[in-house]
Amino acid sequence: MNSQALMDDFRLYLEAERNLSLHTVKAYSSDLEDFLNWAGSADICKFNYKNIRSYLSVIQSKKYTKTTISRKIAAIKTFYKYLYRERLVNSNPAVNIKTPKKIKNLPGFLTELELNQIFIGTDAKTPSQHRDRVIMEMLYATGMRISELCGLDFNNLNLEANEITVFGKGGKERIVLINNRAKNYLLDYIEKIRPIFTQNKESSPNSAIFLNISGCRLQQRSVHRIIAGISKELHLYKKISPHTFRHSFATKLLENGADLRVVQELLGHASISNTQIYTHVSTERLKQAYLSTHPRAKSK
Q1: What secondary structure does DSSP assign to 115-181, as a single string?
Q2: Catalytic residue among 71, 72, 183, 269
Q3: Residue 138 near residue 131 (C-beta atoms within 8 A)
Q4: Residue 221 catalytic?
Q5: Of the residues 71, 77, 183, 246, which is catalytic?
Q6: Known catalytic residue: 23?
Q7: CA dist., res. 8 & res. 15, Å (int)
Q8: Which of 18, 169, 217, 224 is catalytic?
């Protein structure tokens, strides 16, 4: 089987069996194409540990971030694990390849003062501005990812119970909760603002909750631009993104005593270790408060 056929089968495996996100499938495919280009006409099914180490030396000599290198290694390890499962190789040459430890940066978050500055300072004079305000309220109230928010349809809403069904990474379904404040903003948008976006659309309105001015589903890149624009307009010293509201949501819950497992469930994290990073954020804030307020905190 040639390399391209192997790639096509592997991509199908990632999509259908592993149920990975489109973003991850695309990234792994790109990483493997680089690997195959490096291998040239060589038979990758006959590669051994040293062959793979040679390739890793090449990518480590380039100016990739540690995150990118980790992903490229993960792609190769997953690829050879798949080949071994399909009995296309006699042994897995990548089984002993070590993935470098990820350095987890503390996520940025917004204080209550900063959130109020954003919500109060954001104009809602036009339909688009009104929608944008609702989007930020939703992101902070629910902690959902931007992909989950943009993918919302009417059948995902159970607002009588203050619940919303979202589909996270790998298409995993979960329930997020919405408070009355954000729910009222959402209902007002659905009743008064969303119909404005569908006026000039010839076909019947689609089921998407959040629409652009053409009446089509709002895309993630558009929301990134919207929030970056609001940040610039308000002269915020912090760089904020849709994910900043998710970080702020998690941080605030933990600071107010929420159980780590509950926060994990609300965020849709597969591993508790992904959620534990927010405890470091909270601890850092405690340290800052201590150092700035205790009379002898800075004494030697």
Answers
A1: HHHHHHHS---SHHHHHHHHHHHHHHHH---HHHHHT-BGGGEEGGGTEEEEE-GGG-EEEEE--HH
A2: 269
A3: no
A4: no
A5: 246
A6: no
A7: 11
A8: 169
Mark whether 217 is an active-site residue: no
Task: Examine the residue annotation and report whether 18 is marked as an active-site residue of this protein.
Answer: no
Q: Choose among 148, 147, 149: nearest CA to 136.
A: 149
Per-residue pLDDT reduced to its tens digit, 26-63: 999 999 999 999 998 888 999 999 999 999 999 988 88
In tens, the pLDDT along 223-280 reads 999 999 998 888 888 888 999 999 999 989 988 888 889 989 999 888 888 888 888 7
140 is catalytic: no
Residue 277's H or E segment, with its range, is helix 272-293
Q: Mean pLDDT, the chain, as a whole number?
A: 87
Instruction: List the catalytic residue out of 130, 131, 145, 247.
Output: 145
261 is catalytic: no
Task: For Cα atoms 35, 39, 40, give the angle at the middle one, nearest 5 degrees.
Answer: 120
DSSP 16: I
Contacts of 269 (CB under 8 A, 6+ apart): 275
Beta-strand (E) ranges in the chain?
A: 157-158, 163-167, 173-177
Rounded distance, CA 50 to CA 171, Å? Answer: 37
Domains of the chain (ranges plus CATH)? 3-85 (1.10.150.130), 112-292 (1.10.443.10)
